[in-house]
Give the backbone structure.
Amino acid sequence: MLNNTPHITKSDLFEILSARFDAEKKLSEIPNPSLLHDADKAAKRIAHAIQNKERITLVGDYDVDGVSSTAIMVDFFRQIPYPLEAVIPNRFTDGYGVNPTVLERIDADLVLTVDNGITAIAAADICKERGIDLIITDHHTPSKTLPDAYAIVDPKLPACNYPFKEICGAEVAWLLLALVKKELALQIDMRQFLDILAVAIIADVMPLIDINRTLVKEGLKYMMHAKRPSSIIIRDFLNKSAISSEDIAFMIAPRINSAGRLEDASIALEFFTATDTHTAYKQFELLGQLNELRKEIEAQTTKEAMASANENDKVIVVAQEAWHEGVVGIAASRLVDRFEKPAIVLSIKDEEAKGSARSIGNVSIYELIKENEHLLTKFGGHKMAAGLSLLRKDIDAFREAVNASAQKLDAEDFLPTENITGVLATEDIDLELLDLLESFEPYGEANLRPSFLLHEAEVVSIKLMGADKSHSRIEVRQYPHQKKTIELITFRTIFEMPTDRKISCSYSVSKNEFNGRVSVQFLVKKIYNAAN
């Protein structure tokens, strides 16, 4: 594989990246929200509730998309102004989304959901019995049976005519609010929510094409001068001349997510909806502490999960008592990286096990789980990630069944997909290359940052970095005749000098800003062994 990678120049790279996109959409070209199934009906009902002073309760979700969706709604209603009760279920005491447990503490005439509800059949029936109108806004894939709700706004519904389906929960909520604004003839500028919207799209790993690309690009620009206290704190924290999608994905999203994973997502909601920078800063500090704690718990869980994994299985399934429910998804991702196989990590409590699944290559973990749903009490998700619950007594049977299902798949489906763009000459890696790469941002799902290859480069020296010396800085020379060397950085990897003093790896190029000085940074993505 490595020997077949083409040598490319900067102009080749420009052509390759240009071919990824059609003409870019402007904000004014975002399709009409009325094309969303039931959106007009939902907007009219919300407007009617406001005009008639009905009690409205919003039910969100505890991940970044759910919190962002909730924050946009809260801010919008604040500007009308109209009282809105916002509830984000607690992962540990309430479970997911609008459900019978959550409805016990809701007293409303109208219940709205954001980023959840498409599978809430029991909750919809309870709302019907209690005379509550339920409006579901979601973006997850529906089952054959839909909840009996007043309106369901979800681009994945077969009956939905919205031209771009791959939007997150916050986008669905934002588009619906644009129709509510129209119904009530409000003077609210919907562009003011682009900063939060960009965070949600990036964190929920939506494909950065079509309207997602437009919204993220404009949202990141807007964040640089937004007066929203949370955006002021984010840009102060990042301290950069421009914020990239990767800054959000790696530095901001995990912090926001940590609240729902470890404690309660209300901490993150208070950060987004803070009306002054003092409050926003306080919440952001708390999110930072939770994120550090999350890393510790996750590292311990991952270590234990790796020790109990059977690496001969096609799908790694591990389960243990008292693993923290909030980190099993991340632990599953780490197992996928380590074993290059789909992984399911389950936390057992009493007689029930709850967990998360992550996939690899072209394997749909959702379909593998669905094929064995007779052994589950609950499941949901998509091709690359899913959540599931089952009884403790059925874990072994499920492990065997899901592996039997996986045996039927083509071996090639399990191959990790790493698209290497090409081999760049050392002298082509400069500030001009950074400008070229920047012009095609934002990078993310469906527009991956280009990956380049170093094949059998000479290792000149290795230095360990970080407080715990867990990162490596590797100085390499691409070809023996060159004087110029480059420094590769590997995070969370202690790289030891190979016996042949050679390294083959893929890497990405990014901008490093420090004390106002811009330099090129080389980040190792994958180190290949000699057999590749």
Remarks:
- The chain has a mean pLDDT of 92.
